[in-house]
Design goal:
There is one protein chain. With 105 residues, this protein is an alpha+beta fold. The chain is built from 1 helix and 4 strands, in the order αββββ. A hairpin with a 7-residue loop joins strand 1 and strand 2 (41-47). The model has no long low-confidence stretch (mean pLDDT 74).
Length: 105
């Protein structure tokens, strides 16, 4: 009897932990497949309620998916990469922002 209660308690705890870590499949995703880089794509969706301080500013979140073949120059790659991003549009009152990416040699 005691072993049954211990088993039941353990299963209950593990079940609760698994349910807390479950992430539901996102709904309303849009996917754009690259025409220039085979296997690369961007999956995204419009987000609401994250940065609503300025009316009319749109925001999106998603992943840039890069296959192993495009990461050949990255040290210790050997795998596909999915890179998360959040994009917040610029309001009419803000100055434009420039993002620059460089190779670090």
């Amino acid at each position: 009897m005691r072993a049954s209660l211990l088993t039941l308690a353990t299963a209950s705890i593990l079940g609760t932990t698994a349910a807390q870590n479950y992430v539901p499949t996102p709904q309303g995703l849009k996917t754009v497949i690259s025409k220039n880089y085979p296997g690369a794509s961007i999956s995204y969706k419009a987000t609401k309620g994250l940065c609503e301080t300025t009316p009319g500013v749109k925001s999106y979140s998603g992943y840039v998916h890069l296959p192993e073949t495009l990461l050949a120059d990255v040290p210790a790659a050997g795998y596909n990469a999915s890179i998360f991003f959040w994009y917040f549009g610029m309001s009419r009152t803000q100055s434009p922002m420039v993002v620059e990416a460089q190779d670090q040699i």
